[in-house]
Amino acid sequence: MFHENLKKWRVIRGYTRRDVAKRLDMLEASYGFYETGRTKPDTAKLLRIAEMLQVSTDVLLDFHIDE
Question: Which among 13, 19, 39, 43 could bridge 33 via Cys, Cβ 3.0 to 4.6 Å?
């Protein structure tokens, strides 16, 4: 799920919630809502998060195509 992947990759990259929120120019509490699953980012924020965490949006969204 998105919120679990988001937290996992943030921790892997060594960022705190505060670090990410600051780089996204948003409140730490608002970013925290993403990690708890209360809200989801809009497309522009999702792209910025993926770039910051150096992962694709597919990885964050847990999007898989079964072959």
Answer: 39
